[in-house]
Amino acid sequence: MTAPTPIRRALVSVSDKTHLEVLAQILIDAQVEVLSTGGTFKSLEALGVAVVKVSEYTGAPEILGGRVKTLHPKIHGGILALPTPAHEAELRLHGIAPIDLVVVNLYPFRQVVAKPGSSFEDAVENIDIGGPAMVRAAAKNWQRVAVIVDPADYARVGAALREHGGALPESLRRSLMRKAYAHTAAYDAAIAGYLARFDDGGLSLETDALPEQLLVAGAAQGELRYGENPHQPARFYATEQAAGEPAGLHRAVQHQGKALSYNNLLDADAALGLCRDLSRLGPAAAVIKHVSPCGAAIARGDETLADVYVRAREADAESAFGGIVALSGPVDRAVAERLAETFLEVVIAPSFTPEALALLAAKKNLRLLSLEDMFVGTGPESQPALRLRSIAGGLLAQREDAVSVAAAQGRVTTRRAPTAAELRDLELAQIVGKAVRSNAIVLCKDGATVGIGGGQTSRVEAARQATARAGARAQGAVLASDAFFPFRDGVDAAAAAGVTAIVQPGGSVRDEEVVTAADEHGVAMVFTGQRHFRH
């Protein structure tokens, strides 16, 4: 066990000045000599800290527009020196004082590149050089030097200084060291991820391009209640999002209810994604159970969001019990009253009115999540999110699936073309079908799902499941299939139940046979050429 090193001298240079007043008081109380730079120097001085400019200490001015400030032997020698006679003699020879505490957080690279219109030059200028060098140096020499990269750690460092007579115990220095390396690793991953979006000429790559090297960094958002099952520990890690990507669940605000579980987050993500897609067609509601849709609806005419939600719920009221709901608009009292009618696990929406929150407060186990910028970055120019899944030995990565060929843009292959009303329902069925596990069949009617068959090992079985769930509601409904029909039996089953129009990718060796079956039944059929498997 290394004896605690008294904190006599600190270097403070922070981009994020959150809680700087807390740190300033800690340094004053502990009578620590403080070195600093630029804006941090001015802020500390204003807070009453007796602070010395790094340039005065080193005798070297800040140069190159501030690009070189702390890259100096008197700084890095003071940080990296070991408490050995040889190193101490070298420090005396060169007039270098040991630095015992480094408080540094880095240029706001992530925030800069996330701004709309941010240029490549802006991004490069916000790549920190001196900061990571000091953080890594201090972390390397953690047995003598403490390093703080997170303002949330100021208070615990202050408490430890008071408890240990101006020194920090080895366990805390080790903890801070681990956090420092994670901080610089995440920072470098963000830079590498941003640069991967440009070719060797500095031009932006297509939004569906994938990086040659995948660097993933995530900040823990706290422990989840449990994983897929109660005996499995789990955490949620917030990862970097590219500019133009829609906001993720790490940005959501939880207003009430128990802590979220692993399954809650998976379901909420599925509901959020489906609702975002549906919102292109108007006010929308999606109900998810076990990561798969059990009901979805879009507004007809002047329907309210409360009306839309009820039709989504009633698409499969039995399955909606204990489900997760996503809504495309603010939840007001009228919507809240309808939500309160059913036991639900999670509701996510852009916002909740005070009246809605007060009404739903009686549902103490219901989690309410608001995501104010729920639909920011979901337009045609948005960056499709990178989706990752782990397998033994690595990660699979792909861009988010999107229905880019709607039924109205597809090729009519039957004698009868779909009506305008059928086309609208076909587009709804396509979007919902993209969210259903393969093999997937979705029936829609009058702006709502009426039957969903998913996760089946044969397409005709998925069709039978969907029509069985729809029952009499299949009469006059339309159908979307996530992939082609390998045989005509799926079309026969759908037509027998009353389906009047079908959208599918096409591409089977038996397409002609399938189209013939549709014509025999008077069913309109559209080919899109675009498959939407979800495994």
TrEMBL record:
Pathway: Purine metabolism; IMP biosynthesis via de novo pathway; 5-formamido-1-(5-phospho-D-ribosyl)imidazole-4-carboxamide from 5-amino-1-(5-phospho-D-ribosyl)imidazole-4-carboxamide (10-formyl THF route): step 1/1; Purine metabolism; IMP biosynthesis via de novo pathway; IMP from 5-formamido-1-(5-phospho-D-ribosyl)imidazole-4-carboxamide: step 1/1. One of its GO terms (molecular function) is phosphoribosylaminoimidazolecarboxamide formyltransferase activity. SMART domains: AICARFT_IMPCHas (SM00798), MGS (SM00851). InterPro entries: AICAR_Tfase_dup_dom_sf, Cytidine_deaminase-like, MGS-like_dom, MGS-like_dom_sf, PurH-like. Its EC number is 2.1.2.3, 3.5.4.10. The keyword Disulfide bond does not apply. It catalyses: (6R)-10-formyltetrahydrofolate + 5-amino-1-(5-phospho-beta-D-ribosyl)imidazole-4-carboxamide = 5-formamido-1-(5-phospho-D-ribosyl)imidazole-4-carboxamide + (6S)-5,6,7,8-tetrahydrofolate; IMP + H2O = 5-formamido-1-(5-phospho-D-ribosyl)imidazole-4-carboxamide. Residues 1-149 form the MGS-like domain. Coiled coil: none annotated. The keyword tRNA processing does not apply. Keywords: Hydrolase, Multifunctional enzyme, Purine biosynthesis, Transferase. The IMP cyclohydrolase activity resides in the N-terminal region. Belongs to the PurH family. NCBIfam families: PRK00881.1, purH. This is Bifunctional purine biosynthesis protein PurH. The lineage of its organism: Bacteria, Pseudomonadati, Myxococcota, Polyangia, Nannocystales. The gene is purH.
